């Protein structure tokens, strides 16, 4: 399986996992920053008064998954999230999480990751 297909499959698994935890998926692969630096948020999900911005990583082990989001990437993701929240005029809570998927299909959900 190519890395692109692995990424798509991992995002699908993460969406299923979030739905099982009561979240509604609002967007997948939300892209922003055409002129200010491109950023893509893998999953945007909502439950009650909370919106999650999820970065999904598929790694061989949990350690490399936790280190997969760089400071530069987290800044771009925050900017993309601010753009999305402004667009929908959101006044509730928001959080940045990482979901790491490792073989054989183990899922680790890191809440408030950055």
Automatic annotation (TrEMBL):
One of its GO terms (molecular function) is nucleic acid binding. Pfam families: UPF0102. It comes from the Bacteria. InterPro entries: Restrct_endonuc-II-like, tRNA_endonuc-like_dom_sf, UPF0102_YraN-like. Belongs to the UPF0102 family. This is UPF0102 protein IAC63_01100.
